[in-house]
Every structure is written in C-alpha cells, then in structure tokens.
Design brief:
The protein is of the alpha/beta class. Helices cover 26% and strands 31% of the residues. The chain contains 8 helices and 17 strands. A 6-stranded antiparallel beta sheet has the order 9-8-11-6-7-10. It has a 6-stranded parallel beta sheet with strand order 15-14-13-12-16-17, with helices on both faces. Strand 1 and strand 2 form a beta hairpin. The chain binds flavin-adenine dinucleotide and FE2/S2 (inorganic) cluster (FES). FE2/S2 (inorganic) cluster (FES) binds next to loops.
Length: 364
C-alpha cells in the first residue's frame, strides 16, 4: 500500500513538473517564426510573428471582428471559420458552437494561438469594418447610472450602419487597451455622429472610462458590427422590448423606422424598476402623437412610495407585452436587456405567434 502510494505520488509529481515545463517553454521559449495569415481566399494576407492569438493578429492588421469580451473567451462573438491551421479546438471554445459549426471548422479567434500558417474565412461585411476617431460633443445624464454620449466623427468623417448595430470602443486598462461593445443609439440617417447610451457597471473598465469622458475628449472605436436586419417591408410590424441601457439599439431602430416608413406599425415596451430608471418617456410620447401607428408602454417592476403618481403599467415588462401586444406572425421583434428579461419576453412572443427567426436579441 505504502509503495503504491509513493508510486502514485512520484508519477503525479512528474506530470506536474512536465505540465509546468510545457507552460514555461510555451510562454518564454517557443518561437513559431513568421506565419502567413490569409483571410477570405487571399483577399487580405499578412505575416505575423507566431505566439499571439489570431484575434490580436487580425486587429494588428486592421481586420476587425467582433470581440465583445475583449478576448477573454467569454462572449463567443469572435467566431471565424478556420480552413487550414489553427490546431485543435479547445474545451473553452466548444460551449459556443453548434454541431454544424464544429463540423465546419468554426473557431473563437481569441482562443486560436498562431503557431503555423492559417487560412480563415469571415463574413465579407467584416472586411468593411473601420477604425474611427471621434470627439465627445455632448454628454447628458439620463439616470443616476446611465449617460448619453454624443460623439462627432473626425476620421473617417462618416459611418454607414444598420439599425441595431454596435461599435467596439477602446478603453485604457492596466493591462493595455480593451475593447467593449456599445450599441449605436443615433439613427442611421445621422451618419456623421454616433450616439451611445452607457450604463455604469461598478468597477467596470470600459463603462467607468466612458462615464469619465468629458467634452472634446478623443475616443477610438471600430465598427459597425451586428447581424440584426430590419425587414425592409413596411407591412411587417416591429416590436422592441428593452430595459436600462438596452434602450440604445431600440431608439435607433424606432427613429430609423419612422424616418423611412411613417405609417409602419411599431411598439416599444420598456421595463424600469422605479421612476428613477425612467428616461426618454416624454420624447416617445411625443412620437406617439406624431405617428399614430407607434405605441409606447413603460412598466415599473418595483415602484416605490414616491412613484404613487405613476400612471403607466406596473410589473415585469413581459407581462405588459402579454397584455398589450396582439398576436401577429408578421411581426419582427428586437429585445435588448438582461438575460432573464429576454428569456421571459421570448416565451411571450412565441405565444403571440412570432417566428423564432424573427426574434432578435442582444443580452447585456
Ligand atoms: C452587442 C453588445 C452591445 C452592448 N451595448 C451596450 C450599450 O449600448 N450600453 C451599455 O451600457 N452596455 C452595452 N453592452 C455591454 C458592454 O459591452 C460592457 O459589457 C459593459 O459596459 C461592461 O463593461 P466594463 O468594461 O465596464 O466592465 P468589465 O470590466 O468587463 O466588467 C467588470 C465586472 O462587471 C461584470 N459585468 C460586466 N458587464 C456587466 C453588466 N452588463 N451588468 C452587470 N455586471 C457586469 C463583469 O462580470 C465583471 O465582474 C453591450 C454588450 C454587447 C455584447
Ligand atoms: S472575444 Fe469574446 S470570446 Fe473571443
């Protein structure tokens, strides 16, 4: 028994030493030389010193793909199809993939380490993503923890985006720069500026940086990103449901819709805890008067005593959707807010005959 135990201990020790040695040599001694990265059948080709991640290499060479968590492997946004090279799929990646994606070579670019030549495929529209510099033109406090940030573009001077898309802003951090995703709240026809609605996450790197910005500060971002596509048919009704900073893509969608289709049917459901979280209600009530097919409903989930004059709905926002929305299979929905809200609203919308493929969401 004693001999068996010491054999196990010795073997365990050898494996530990080997693992540590592998880690050290990977980090400090491994030199993979210069590797060639080819994107979309050679439409972009560049050389990169081995050892960095594919995501870093792409950014260094101005190929911008979404990376909402800044390369931590936790958002699943940095997907690309690796045709050659890239090594085996890591266990950190598999939770983000469907079976079809696994079979077709989809990888998380932030988890692929460059050790050899790599050939990848990304959606063509990502090759049009650009890097922008802008200055802060105006900041407005919308609630105790949400600010509206208005940016004037400097270079390039214009951005072309679709309703519901987002940018990735660069924020300084002790470990270098990080990128975080923020939806564009300005409508698509205002293409020389970008407006953001940002909630301060306590201790959060990018949201603290954005909340500390003052007028005339310069910011850097890449974009636009995002797969949401508004159906270009004014007969298709649109329903938007949000909470908190989830207002950002929604306000863009609504104003872009009424700029193009003044008769289109559209409703906004916005969930707040108390009246302290309410913003933009006046402007949406004015929009309701201007466009008779627009409806706005705000609901308070935890009204305080001071909210006794509140004349709107109370309760969770999915209950308001259940109450006010008529069933309609020709309806497209965009949801933006915390995951539990999105899950509850999705169930209600399915009950209202909306098709899965017409329900889009951004969870944050
Ligand atoms: C497609 C997309 C669009 C987005 N659009 C917007 C937008 O328009 N406005 C906006 O305010 N945010 C938006 N976000 C969220 C935003 O990208 C950041 O995740 C958020 O601002 C936190 O970043 P941070 O660097 O401040 O916090 P981090 O430094 O990344 O995180 C600090 C801590 O807070 C936790 N944390 C991170 N995010 C949240 C959160 N949302 N709530 C609570 N805790 C959190 C982390 O787990 C960590 O413990 C969007 C996200 C995505 C994916
Ligand atoms: S950047 Fe978030 S998973 Fe890769």
């Amino acid at each position: 028994m004693g001999v068996e135990l010491s054999a196990v201990a010795v073997t365990g020790g050898i494996f530990t030493i080997l693992a540590v040695w592998l880690l050290i040599s990977e980090r400090y001694l491994a030199h993979y030389g210069t590797c060639v990265i080819s994107v979309n059948g050679g439409s972009t080709v560049f050389e990169q010193q081995g050892g960095s991640t594919l995501l870093t290499a792409l950014y260094d060479n101005k190929v911008f793909i979404p990376s909402a968590c800044g390369g931590k492997g936790s958002c699943g946004y940095c997907k690309c199809t690796v045709i050659n090279g890239g090594g085996p799929v890591l266990p950190t990646e598999t939770p983000f993939f469907t079976r079809t994606e696994m079979r077709s070579g989809v990888r998380l670019a932030c988890q692929v380490k460059i050790k050899e030549d790599i050939e990848i495929q990304i959606p063509e529209e990502l090759l049009a993503v650009k890097e922008y510099t802008a200055t802060v033109a105006l900041i407005r406090e919308l609630t105790y923890d949400i600010k509206e940030i208005n940016l004037d573009l400097i270079e390039p001077e214009e951005v072309s985006h679709r309703p519901g898309q987002y940018i990735q802003i660069q924020a300084p951090s002790p470990e270098g720069h990080v990128f975080r995703a923020y939806s564009i709240s300005s409508p698509v026809y205002e293409n020389n500026k970008v407006q953001l609605i940002v909630r301060l996450v306590p201790g959060g790197i990018a949201s603290t940086y954005i909340h500390s910005l003052t007028e005339k500060d310069e910011v850097l971002f890449t974009g636009p990103y995002g797969e949401f596509r508004l159906i270009e048919d004014p007969e298709v009704e649109v329903v938007c449901v949000g909470g908190g900073a989830g207002m950002a893509p929604i306000v863009n969608i609504i104003y872009s819709i009424y700029h193009q289709w003044p008769e289109r049917k559209c409703s906004l459901f916005f969930g707040c805890r108390t009246t302290r979280d309410v913003f933009y209600l006046d402007r949406f009530m004015a929009l309701e008067k201007e466009y008779p097919n627009f409806k706005v409903i705000y609901a308070l989930s935890d009204p305080l005593q001071e909210d006794e004059k509140w004349a709107g709905d109370t309760g969770f926002i999915h209950l308001s959707v259940e109450k006010h929305l008529q069933p309609n299979p020709r309806c497209q929905a965009f949801l933006c807010g915390p995951p539990p809200m999105i899950e509850a609203v999705t169930e209600v919308l399915k009950g209202k005959k909306l098709k899965d493929e017409n329900i889009f969401y951004d969870k944050f």
